[in-house]
Amino acid sequence: MKSIKNFTAIIEKQDDGYVALCPELDIASQGDTVEEAKVNLHEAIELFFEHASNDEIEYRLKADIFITNMQIAVGQA
Length: 77
What we know:
The model has no long low-confidence stretch (mean pLDDT 94). Helices cover 32% and strands 21% of the residues. By secondary structure, the chain is an alpha+beta fold.
């Protein structure tokens, strides 16, 4: 039986499309729209779990991913 796991999708505009990254597995995909990039990343993650060995999954899976916002002073002082 399959279990449901939560993963992060970081999606950014790049040239004429969007790139989606799952930092927990270091898997990326792309699409012409945000939604397409997300769907393609979802498919890439599913395919990874279908075909990767348990050792590969354990090696790539990062449990502690923190996404935060930072304020940085930039420019000349």
